[in-house]
Amino acid sequence: MDGTRTLPAIGAIQRTNAIIACAAALLLFIFRSQAAALSCLLGAGVVILNVFLLTFVVRILLARAVGGAGSTWGAIALPIKLVLFIGLVYLTLFHTGIDGIGFGVGVLTQMIAVLIETARANLGQHRVSPDGV
User: Fold this and answer.
1) Which burial class, exposed, middle or buried, applies to 45 when counting CB atoms under 10 A from its CB (0-12, 13-18, 19+)?
2) What does the pLDDT read at residue 25?
3) Helix/strand/coil percent split, the chain, to 5
4) Distance between CA 101 and CA 29 in Å, rounded?
5) One-letter-per-residue 3-state SS of the chain
6) Cβ 69 vs Cβ 48: under 8 Å
């Protein structure tokens, strides 16, 4: 054991996030309201879309960097994406009938999924084999 950590794959995090979001939405439907459950799914969908777009933008930036292209696009792409998503969340929360608590729970599912997948990736690598190595 050399102390290195394994990072989980983005796909694994997103899959876990979808499962957690569905479970959270079901609980919100049972204990709060249908609007809270739908808002939870919307919040989870926003963060899943955000990570997908972030991955896409980073791949484009890395491809341009390897090809030697200018970094002007890279300097503005990520902040523009961030501002657009902040605007989307603002419009969603304050100009529609979205349940804020449900939406917040949906957004938090991403962090829970990251923690679960990181723990799973790292706990799996530290198991002792049958021969004691």
Assistant:
1) middle
2) 98
3) 80, 0, 20
4) 12
5) CCCCCCCCCHHHHHHHHHHHHHHHHHHHHHHCCHHHHHHHHHHHHHHHHHHHHHHHHHHHHHHHHHHCCCCHHHHHHHHHHHHHHHHHHHHHHHCCCCCHHHHHHHHHHHHHHHHHHHHHHHHHHCCCCCCCC
6) no
Structure tokens at 108: 């938090």
Indicate the burial class of 127 (C-beta count within 10 angstroms; 0-12, 13-18, 19 or more). Answer: exposed
- Is the model's pTM score more than 0.70? yes
Taking CB atoms within 8 Å and a gap of at least 24, the contacts of 20-27 are 20/44, 20/109, 20/112, 20/113, 20/116, 21/45, 21/106, 21/109, 24/105, 24/106, 24/109, 25/102, 25/106
Residue 77 tokens read as 């792409």
Where along the chain do its domains lie? Answer: 10-120
Report whether pLDDT(66) > 80.
no
